[in-house]
């Protein structure tokens, strides 16, 4: 069995090495809904996450204003408007 890779070998980065970013604005009900899903999935998988306020960041505002809430996974846009829990889990698995 020398040289064989175990079936449980990890592919891709470890959960703690990932980062989910939720780009949102105050008073946005879709943003609140998205945050509930992001918090749950990240807690379940051990993935850190952060929240960014689009009203305090001109670059984020210019890039994502018409799409909020926006979820980024490792800095790349994953989704916008509505967050699908299963899809986010698969992206982080």
Automatic annotation (TrEMBL):
Recorded superkingdom: Bacteria
Matches recorded under Gene3D superfamilies: Glutaredoxin
One Pfam family from the record: Glrx-like
InterPro entries noted in UniProt: Glutaredoxin-like, Glutaredoxin-like_YDR286C, Thioredoxin-like_sf
Entry protein name: Glutaredoxin family protein
Annotated source species: Streptomyces cellulosae
């Amino acid at each position: 069995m020398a040289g064989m890779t175990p079936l449980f070998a990890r592919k891709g980065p470890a959960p703690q090495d990932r980062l989910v970013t939720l780009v949102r604005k105050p008073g946005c009900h879709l943003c609140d809904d998205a945050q509930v899903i992001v918090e749950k999935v990240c807690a379940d998988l051990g993935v850190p996450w952060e929240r960014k306020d689009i009203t305090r960041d001109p670059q984020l505002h210019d890039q994502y204003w018409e799409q909020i809430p926006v979820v980024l996974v490792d800095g790349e846009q994953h989704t916008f408007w509505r967050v699908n829990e299963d899809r986010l889990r698969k992206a982080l698995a």
